[in-house]
UniProtKB/TrEMBL annotation:
GO terms for biological process: tRNA modification. Catalyzes the formation of N(4)-acetylcytidine (ac(4)C) at the wobble position of elongator tRNA(Met), using acetate and ATP as substrates. First activates an acetate ion to form acetyladenylate (Ac-AMP) and then transfers the acetyl group to tRNA to form ac(4)C34. Its EC number is 6.3.4.-. It comes from Psychrobacillus vulpis. The keyword RNA-binding applies. GO terms for molecular function: ATP binding; ligase activity, forming carbon-nitrogen bonds; transferase activity; tRNA binding. This is tRNA(Met) cytidine acetate ligase.
Length: 404
């Protein structure tokens, strides 16, 4: 059986994701689609709209054959580490290819870009450092350094100011650095860009736009034309059970408590908290009753909204710099959901896996990376502050992989 991998968050699964899935299967002529999916906290440093089990069911209903959880340490990391963890898992799962959505839509430009940056690595890193010394944020420094380096090339290159292009570049970089045999492919992202707001006259919108409409209006009819009916059904079921969707605004009372129960010096021990941000975070938590006001106070040219949110995620889950240093690559494969096709594929490769397959977490002892996932899950449900959420604490021990 021929397998293709995709790296996803599905927050929530929408029509754009459905297009990507269908095109990925067609482009690679694959029998199996494997999705490596973030758990309950995401790459932009925020709680997922709905939990990983709900999003895994959305994926299965739309045509994914096997959903694997991307461990917390990679799911909440900067783009290069996020990509490294995901591509490592897809390679470990014997995928022949992986297919990502991009604004570029052409593999040629990605290859040229990787060749340029790998051959001019020293100049590129020096340029990044020089731009950061001017007080601008790391992502802006990357863009400026890339623009500077790319002036020396006449070949077609990728626009690395676009979010999906950035991730795509890091997927390819990870595959090369891991010396992986997996082959990259890309699908052109259509209609909606990552940060675009949802437009009523379209059928495809970004997940960001869909979430904004849902939070602003709390009306499913306003988003139903952006989602497969199966995704809409899952969202409605979630709302009937939990009454609320995941967001930092909802989690703020507990996050604020976690921040203020620490000293400023203690906050500096958590991953990605750097350059005195522990002081700004603690002081802003003292003064602000809402998450939005808190973020508006501490956001700066130096630190993007996303980077600050990742700091907060690690403070909330108590994930330290020391833990981060000791975790390089995924140490297990954890299936969340599969159909009969995905189950048959997993069974066919099971004996040749290089890292453990974890279907029951209780059977996996002394795995620090997995312990982080379990903690993050419990804290996610606690942050929802609902009776149903309280019942879901400990669910990683109770729920086995979903099979349909």
């Amino acid at each position: 059986m021929k397998a293709t991998g995709v790296v996803v968050e599905y927050n929530p699964f929408h029509n754009g994701h459905l297009h990507h899935l269908k095109q990925s299967r067609l482009k690679t002529n694959s029998d199996v689609i494997i999705a490596v999916m973030s758990g309950n906290f995401l790459q932009r440093g925020e709680p997922a709209l709905v939990d990983k089990w709900t999003r895994a069911k959305m994926a299965l209903s739309a045509g994914v054959d096997l959903v694997i959880e991307l461990p917390y340490v990679f799911a909440t990391a900067q783009a290069s580490d996020f990509a490294k963890g995901a591509i490592f898992l897809l390679e470990a799962l014997k995928c022949e290819s992986f297919c990502f959505g991009s604004e570029e839509g052409s593999m040629e430009a990605f290859r040229h870009t990787y060749q340029l940056l790998s051959t001019k690595k020293t100049e590129y890193n020096t340029a990044i450092s020089n731009f950061m010394k001017q007080g601008i944020s790391y992502p802006k420094a990357l863009n400026e350094a890339y623009r500077f380096i790319s002036e020396s090339s006449s070949l077609p290159l990728v626009d690395l100011s676009k979010p999906n292009n950035i991730l795509g570049y890091h997927y390819i970089e990870a595959a090369f650095q891991l010396n992986a045999s997996i082959k990259p492919e890309t699908i052109h992202r259509i209609v909606a860009n990552y940060h675009d707001e949802a437009k009523p006259n379209e059928t495809i919108a970004s997940a960001t736009g869909i979430r904004k409409v849902l939070f602003d209006e709390m009306d499913f009819t306003a988003i139903e034309h952006f989602l497969p009916s199966t995704s809409l059904n899952e969202l409605q079921l979630w709302k009937s059970n939990f009454q609320i969707f995941g967001s930092w605004e909802r989690f703020w009372p507990i996050l604020r408590f976690v921040i203020l129960r620490h000293t400023k010096e203690q906050l500096a021990n958590y991953a990605e908290v750097t350059e005195g941000m522990e002081n700004a975070i603690w002081n802003a938590a003292m003064r602000n009753e809402t998450f939005l006001l808190f973020m508006q106070q501490i956001k700066s040219k130096r630190f993007t909204w996303t980077r600050i949110q990742r700091m907060l995620t690690h403070i909330y889950t108590e994930f330290t710099w020391e833990q981060l240093k000791n975790m390089d690559l995924p140490t297990y494969i954890r299936p969340l959901a599969m159909n009969k096709n995905g189950q048959a594929y997993l069974q066919s490769i099971k004996k040749n896996l290089q890292i453990p397959l974890v279907s029951r977490v209780a059977a996996c002892k002394d795995n620090n990376m997995l312990e982080l996932d379990l903690r993050a899950t419990n804290l996610y449900y606690l942050g929802l502050q609902t009776d149903y959420g309280q019942k879901m604490i400990g669910s990683d021990y109770k729920i086995t992989p979903i099979i349909r």
